Amino acid sequence: MSRPPVLRLLFAFVSIGVLVFDQATKEWITSRMALHSSVPVVPGLINLTLVTNTGALFGMFRDIADPCRTIMFLAVPVVAITLILYFQYRTSARETMTQSGLALILGGAVGNLVDRLRFGHVVDFVDVFVGEYHWPAFNVADSAICVGVSLLFIDLLRQSRRSQTAEAPPGN
Is 63 known to be catalytic? Predict the structure, then answer.
């Protein structure tokens, strides 16, 4: 078996791993905690706090009325997942940072879509705060998406630098 198919399989396992870990942590939390209950993990910084999110990223658009909200929050992830799969297919397997970022985003997107299909909302439980200032609660899928986007951004910066270096006239 040549190297690119093995790499593509590895990236598929990353996506599946994110999905499984995301769903397992959500199942574990929901089976042990009541909605809106909280357990300190790092006092004064991180709690496990079970909440639901009917909105998008960090609760945005949660006030849109149904059925528009439901249709939007099911259609947008399906389109995003389709585009990610297309980009994975079109990108060389040897572009590991790009493929890793896409794999993390894919696993996270599918994880949150599974929640929406099962419950009509996303289960969030990581509560990071300093004093009274709280970051919106999130989950493993959200974390994977953020890390994946960061990897894509870093890769884009690296590629931009490489192309600028290649285009620089000699002697500069």
Answer: no
